[in-house]
Design brief:
Distance between the termini: 60 Å
Structural class: alpha+beta
Number of domains: 2
Number of strands: 10
Strand content: 15-25%
Strand order of the largest sheet: 6-5-2-1-9-10
Number of helices: 6
Radius of gyration: 21 Å
Largest sheet: 6 strands, mixed
Shape: globular
Helix content: 10-25%
Length: 296
C-alpha cells in the first residue's frame, strides 16, 4: 500500500496533477424551468464547495428525459475565472439572461422537461438532480424531487445547504443522494461566476422572500408600500413586478423600491433584477436596525 501511494504521488508530481481534480468538487444547486410568461427562461446553476474547481474546459451539463434518456449535453469550452470556494457557475438560456439581467457562463437551450427529468454535471462522482416522474436510474438521486408536480413554473429547485456544516455554505455532505430530501422549491436566485458569494446574507434574503410570500398569500392584499400607486423613477412597486411575471407574490412593506435601478449600461433592469436589489436592500437594512436597549 505504501509503495502504491508513493507511486501515485510520484505520478502526480511528474504530470502536474493534484490530489483533488480542478473541476469535480461541485454540485448542482439550482434548476429553474422558466415562468408561465417566459417558459424558455431556463437555467441550471452549479456551485463549488471548495476552491480551485474552475478548470471546466471539456466538461458538461447533461439533460435527461423522464425515462433517463439523454436529451442534450452543454459543454464548457474554457475555464471560468473565479475559482474561489462557494463560487457559482450559471448555465442559462438567452431568455433567462434577458429575464434576470445576468450573463451566463455557458449558454443552454430550453430543453428542461418540467414533468420529469434529470440534470447532471460530470463531477467525480457525477452529481445530478432528478425531479417529477423521472423513472431512470436511481443512482445518486434516490427519490426524485417534487414527484407529484415536477418543476413548477416560476419556482426553482434549490439545494438545501443546512444538511451539513454551515447553513449558508455548500458542503459535500449536503448531498445525501436523495433529491426529495436534498432540494426544496424556492424563488429563483441565479448567480454567475462573477457574482460575489454572500453566504448567510443570501440565505436571509431567501427567508425574507419566503416570509413575504406567505404573508401576501394569507392576507391576500398588496402590503403597504408595494401597492400599484407606489412608484419610484416611473417603475412599479415590487409586488406588481412579481405579479407581472405571474410568479408568487413576494413583497412586503420594506420591499418598496426606493430608487430606480438600472444595469451598468444604463438600461432599465429586468423586473426580477429589480426585486433582487430590493430584497437585498431590505435585508441589509433589517440587519442594520439597532437592537432595543443596545447602543452603538
Amino acid at each position: 500500500m505504501k509503495a502504491t501511494a508513493t507511486a501515485i504521488a510520484l505520478g502526480m508530481a511528474l504530470f502536474g496533477g493534484s490530489a483533488e481534480a480542478s473541476f469535480h468538487l461541485m454540485k448542482v444547486v439550482q434548476v429553474f424551468p422558466g415562468t408561465a410568461a417566459a417558459p424558455n427562461a431556463q437555467y441550471v446553476m452549479i456551485q463549488m464547495y471548495t476552491g480551485g474547481q474552475n478548470q471546466l474546459s471539456g466538461h458538461q451539463i447533461s439533460v435527461f428525459n423522464a425515462s433517463g434518456t439523454a436529451i442534450q449535453n452543454f459543454t464548457f469550452n474554457a475555464a471560468v475565472a473565479n475559482g474561489g470556494a462557494q463560487a457559482r457557475i450559471l448555465i442559462a438560456t438567452t431568455e433567462a439572461v434577458a429575464l434576470f439581467g445576468m450573463s451566463a457562463d455557458l449558454t443552454m437551450t430550453a430543453v428542461l422537461p418540467s414533468a420529469g427529468g434529470k440534470v447532471c454535471f460530470d463531477a467525480i462522482p457525477v452529481d445530478c438532480l432528478a425531479w417529477g416522474n423521472y423513472s431512470g436510474s436511481a443512482t445518486g438521486v434516490g427519490t426524485p424531487f417534487n414527484v407529484a408536480t415536477g418543476l413548477v413554473p416560476g419556482a426553482a429547485a434549490i439545494r438545501r445547504l443546512d444538511i451539513s456544516g454551515g447553513a449558508g455554505t455548500l458542503e459535500a455532505a449536503d448531498d445525501t443522494d436523495n433529491c426529495a430530501n436534498d432540494f426544496v422549491s424556492g424563488m429563483p436566485l441565479p448567480r454567475n461566476n462573477d457574482t460575489l458569494f454572500l453566504g448567510s446574507l443570501e440565505q436571509a434574503r431567501a427567508r425574507l422572500v419566503a416570509r413575504c410570500t406567505r404573508a401576501a398569500r394569507v392576507h391576500r392584499t398588496q402590503p403597504a408600500g408595494c401597492r400599484a400607486g407606489h412608484r419610484s423613477g416611473g417603475r412599479p412597486g415590487a409586488f406588481n413586478l412579481i405579479h407581472r411575471l405571474q410568479m408568487p407574490s413576494a413583497s412586503c412593506a420594506s420591499l418598496a423600491l426606493s430608487r430606480a435601478i438600472a444595469t451598468p449600461s444604463g438600461a432599465p433592469a429586468s423586473p426580477l433584477v429589480m426585486l433582487t436589489h430590493c430584497v437585498t436592500h431590505s435585508t441589509v437594512h433589517h440587519m442594520r436596525r439597532p437592537v432595543p436597549g443596545r447602543s452603538g
